[in-house]
Write a structure and sequence with these properties.
The complex is a heterodimer of chains A (about 450) and B (about 260). Chain A is mainly α. Chain A has two domains: about 180 residues, no CATH class; about 260 residues, no CATH class. Chain A starts with a helix and ends with a helix. The model of chain A has no long low-confidence stretch (mean pLDDT about 85). Chain B has about 260 residues and is an alpha/beta fold. In chain B, the strands form two sheets. Chain B has a six-stranded mixed beta sheet, sandwiched between helices. Chain B has a four-stranded antiparallel beta sheet with strand order 2-1-4-5, covered by helices on one side. Chain B has eight helices and ten strands. The relative contact order of chain B is 0.18. About 0% of the residues of chain B have low confidence. In chain B, strand 9 and strand 10 form a beta hairpin. Classes of the chains: A mainly alpha (about 450), B alpha/beta (about 260). At the A-B interface, helix 9, helix 12, helix 13 and helix 15 of A face helix 2 and helix 3 of B.
Chain lengths: ~450, ~260
Amino acid sequence: MFVLALNSVRHRPGRFVATLLSAFLGAAIVMTFNSLHDTAGARGVDEVSAESMTTAATVVGGYGSLLAFFAVASTLTVNVRGRAEEIRLLRSTGATPAQITWMVVGEAVVVGPVGALLAIAPSMLAGRLLLEMFQDSGQVARDVAYAFGPVALGSGLVVTLSASVGAAFLAVRRATRAASGAGRSGGRARRFAGYGALAAGAASVLSTLALDATDPMAMAPAAYGSILLAAGFAVFSPVLLRAVLGRLARPVEAVAGGSGHLAVHTMRRRAAELSGVLMPLILFTGMATATLYMQAVENDVIRAAGLTRSVDDKNLETLNLVVVGVIVVFSCVMLINSLYAATSFRRREFGQQRLAGATPGQVLGTVGCEGLLLTATGVFFGTVAGLAGILPFTYARTDGIRPGQGFGIWLGIVAVAAAATLVTSLWTARLTLRTPAVDAVAA
Amino acid sequence: MFRRSQQEHSPRAATALRLVSVSKVYGTAQSAVTALDGVTLSLGAGTFTAVMGPSGSGKSTLLQCAAGLDRPDRGRVVVDGEEMTGGTEARLTKFRRQRVGFVFQQYNLLPTLTVAQNTALPLKLAGRRVDQERVREILTQVGLGDRLGHRPDQLSGGQRQRVAIARALVTEPGVVFADEPTGALDTRGAREVLRLLQRAVRVHGRTVVMVTHDPVAASYADTVLFLADGRLAGHLSGPTVDAVAERLAHLGDRVRDDAPTGV
């Protein structure tokens, strides 16, 4: 089976691009930050510098590993789902489920480390820049020399390899379970986890109010609360999407005509599948909104108090911004990947719409409508999760409830979310429309 | 049931479908395959025609060119008195949705829409007013009046094909094209579908062109056209199952006789 895996990677490199990209990005972030461990561990580094670097490396490295796992898992799930036909063929020629699993895992074992190896040079460069940034802001002493050592290299390889293998197992298990006709199990566990996340998020957000108002650490529970709420909303995204569609069905149909009609009905039926797209949207909006606004509020508080910002304050800001950056990149990869897959699997459906009398423009209109509705839903619940953290934090740190930052940051976040969603789905749909409708239906 | 509605303005042309020396070649140079070779035919309004021929005789290509799903390389196609001119897919789509209805072997109903929504979809897409009463009426007449809210995956193959027929007729098209409409059905489901198509023609004056390889299905038509190697190879009026089967069996002989010997 490993030979088969090698052949499938060699002859169809295209379908591994998404997995390779996620592994590459994951490894790059993990190695970039973990090289700070190497740098901090060198002889003669003073304590403050070492602490700044170790904190950053630990927090972002941990985040990065987790996100790398999710991103690789999401791309592999999509990859395996797209090969249902090939897997069916293998089964009918006598491959056991274990053999199919080994094939997919084998592919991941090849692709994951390749991504990590490719990421070494960029990580060295990025790590150097990161160190300079820390030095410019005074968080790290000038005389500290950059080092890219065993911790960076080892962690990069271990994280990508284990993420790829773990994600491959998960992806195959899901796919074969679906193929053997077993219903979605784990629905209850999922719901339970969702309620848990919402409850913990609410508790975390509320605990912000009980904290000492002068403590900049008040940001931590508020931020975690927002993240947990966003994750909870993400779990329940099918239900939330249906609720939104129920409200917006009439206005959308009135504005967008036949396209809107199709979009609303199709999405209502596909709500469960669309959660793969909504999840990164909600998480992205929620986390970006919460972190960026809280950081802005924190900066204003310090400035208003006439204080200069300490190394700790700066560390916190750097971390926050980097974490948001990492999340943005990964959410975009996941969003684009699952949306691309979801749209290109609909070739046949688009063909049927065209045969029923939809012009190519109407098909694109339907896809555009769906993209807008998805963005609106994701942004709405992401914003709710973000606000749930921002408001108590602002109340704790300042006198008011509303942060004084205005809508600028939020509009930027929404623009990124909308652009990623609409560009991906419309572009993919356009590609599928190149096939004549009759062939698209037959394929 | 499939009556024309009162608000229709243009009178229906006497000839529902006319093809003049239509040719279609797939592939290029050495690998070129001539699917249609100068086919000329004319079908009157209110007729039920079956097109038959062995695999690769060009019957699907004929249907797709006539229905505006594919563009012929040469020749003219006139549907319901209006010549089909090339242009963008959007233009062809608009042409089709005014004059043509389809029934496919694989139904091609949208899985996310209910029976009633599927039936009304061509009207919605064309921006026409949807008369729910009329949708209900037409579905009742194909025997699915009690299934309006079902989804396609809750129906049997025969029922799905009847929804497809209702959808094809709801726009009151000049010609209904059916591509192996009974190919995926059991005998009972097939019989019901064929009777519905027959009734649409005999009782309500629709025009139906059906591609099939099944002599039983063809025997429901008024006329059978035979196709071999991309050319018309005779026709049969008032077909019976045996007559069609007999003709089909010898279609190959004639082609073989024509071919140069000593292969």
